Amino acid sequence: MSAIKPKIEELISQEYPAGFVTDIESDTLPPGLNEDVIRTISAKKNEPHFLTEWRLDAFRHWQKMTLPHWAHIKYPAIDFQAISYFSAPKKQKQPESLDDVDPELLRTYEKLGIPLEEQKLLAGVAVDAVFDSVSVATTFKDKLAEMGIIFCSFSEAVLKHTELVQRYLGSVVSNRDNFYAALNAAVFSDGSFVYVPKRVRCPMELSTYFRINAALTGQFERTLIIAEERSYVSYLEGCTAPMRDENQLHAAVVELVALDDAQIKYSTVQNWYPGDAEGRGGIYNFVTKRGLCKGNNAKISWTQVETGSAITWKYPSCILKGDNSVGEFYSVALTNNYQQADTGTKMIHVGKNTRSTIISKGISAAQGQNAYRGLVQIHQRADNARNYTQCDSLLIGDRCGAHTFPYIEVRNSTAKVEHEASTSKIGEDQLFYCQQRGLSQEDAVSMIVNGFCKQVFKELPMEFAVEAQKLLGVSLEGSVG
Amino acid sequence: MNAVESYQALYWQLAEQLPGHEVAWVRAMRETALQHFAELGFPTRKQEAWKYTQLQALEKNIYHPTTSQQQFINNDDCQQLPLATLDAYKLVFVDGHFNWILSDINPLPDGVVINELSNILNSQTKQQHPIFPLTQQTDDVLNALNNAFITTGAAINILADVQLEKPIHLQYINTIKNKSASYSRNVVIMEPNSHAQLIESHVALGEGDYVNNVQVDIQLETGAQLQHYKLQLEGQSGMHFSETQVELASDSHYQNHLFAFGSQLMRNNIKTKLNGARAGCLLNGLFISQSKQHLEMRTHIDHHAPSCTSRETYRGIANDKSHGVFDGTVVVHPHAQKSDARVTTNNLLLSQGSEIDAKPQLEIYADDVKCSHGATIGQLDEEVLYYLRSRGIDEATSRNLMLFAFANHIIEQCPMNAFQSALHGLLLKQLQSGDQLQELLK
Description:
With 481 residues, chain A is of the alpha/beta class.
């Protein structure tokens, strides 16, 4: 084992490869938050009256709220008045095709390995690229529009599909839900909106890349996905952010609504800047993600690979309201250097015969702190509810931490709930076994770490599975194998 | 006047009657605790440690500490109680007061020193008695109340290398009828390489509404071993609050076997600190709850030193509208390498309206560790039931048999045979028409 240690340390000390800043003129509001700022954001985006009021209601409530402190994370106090709440790349001309898009922007994506053109050719992936806060390019819209699928930026949806937005916005995560969700509701700049009509199976993976760019700009995304009866949609979210010393706050909200027999698959690869080896800088990723299985036989599946951010604090949850609905949560969370993660899920079983599965894999290295926090709640009327939870932690180095805080609350005597958790380092006997089969030590470590995460990776869409493994490699074990 | 102020007023009203009221350090200790109690106040659901359990009953009614034994009981009454016939050095406490007549500790073998706590509190020493630094102030409101109002308890000291053959039995009998509370505190110090067994039993005579607040402080020195058995069979309207704090030096071993069947509200808290290398602990527990009982079991294990082992298994059966809570935390501190910890909780929900909450937690700050926990909440296996019925056993008996087997998993891990068989009897009484099962098990 001792021979591997320096190797691992060398690997985990790798610089963040996606760290660069794109130089584009931004239309940025001065830092600070008050009702005027919110009115300005709302006005700039030509929002209808109800939304302005909704934002203001959230803001007024937010002012009365106190910062939550229960998570197993430490960070200096955030000065919410020092954040600029709106930053949009200056509007030049409305881009008609990719050729009209600012080449500087396209180059940024290329550096990240997400060339839009190539993706257009590759097909199967429609990218609604969010550059800072305003969507600048949306592809494959026509093809989707033919099937009646709406996939656009949130601001566009607010203007063009006001009724849908008004009906579903805040129906899963209310504008007063929690401290950061309320803040998001007050100031959210943009995000994605997906609507899949009845009996439509979305033919491609929908994808958005979020990048935080302008300095000192908190990004407040809001995503709303609605799957009508018998529809299916798979949504990919991938993130990378440029290197920067200032801590940046990211408080996004994602709402999913699945009606009768609908299925939503939501996958995330999160690789925001985690801060340097001394723990300076990095993104604060405080996100509220929640899905509502509103109809019977609905299914919502969350898959996440969290390798970035200085602090990750999020619990993608499922409210299983419809009978026979299914919730799934697959997660790999990696913390390195001084990264902290407090993540997990909530499965709220309300309907009958509801089922949920939770698979969580945490990897801690160096001084990383990784916590799984989850809630499985079976309500009194949720007959025959079933849950299986497994959370495993892998520790690399003696200064890191791995924690498990599951809450299991069962109020129905027909429920079956199982939970298991284990924590260990890479076993010497495992290594020994691999090595006596002729594998090199590095291969063995790589194999074990990959195997450890495999259960989650196999849930990712093909495109993401490759990226996820690459990310994990960059962040930790890649060149061991 | 709110509840906190009422308890404070109660203290000043009763201060003259509490043991040790003339001793300066005892007064100081009580008043510090009272101050601490006022600072803490009664918990709300928003406090993490009180998420599932409420103390409204203590706020609604002010429970006066008992000033004397309330009802006379003779030796025959005493012999009828569970575990009474177990061969042991017996200390009997009735309504929070030590009863010399019912107790039986003579002759004590060499190397065992037992003192009654009110004697220690009343002894006019200028200095604090050496056992008191052990009774730590914790951030638990019930512990603070106990410190302020202690009336009795046992101070047990087992000298080095003593191997005590017979167990020491602390028998608590409650005959309280009105709304009163008894506060006791036991201190056990096990010197190096001593071995002992401790039984703690709590039973009620009558149906009174009372509070039994018991704190136990245990110190195991190098190589010491203690088996601690606890039976909680309080009355249907009684409340049982207990905190057991254990400190383990290297190579020592502590076992705690908890059996909780009684009381309308129980909060049992065990805090174990593995301070020395290679120390170990085994915490097992079984609860069966009926009607509207609310039973909460909390355990906290701190691995402070390398190569320590902890094992924990809690099983629960919730019936009717009852509520069971298991909250078990294991913390592996930095440098506690080679820690080995395992926590398991299995629970059965038998009826609609019952609830079980489980919260097994791990906090790990060292890498070379093996830690795991598992939790299940479910029902009796229908297939097993079918198998038993196909063998000609009726459904009620089959279910009872399965419940017996489920519970017996905890009972059979008790190393003391006499205690095991006594528990088998008690278990059958807890099951509906369990006496029929007796025939089958013969």
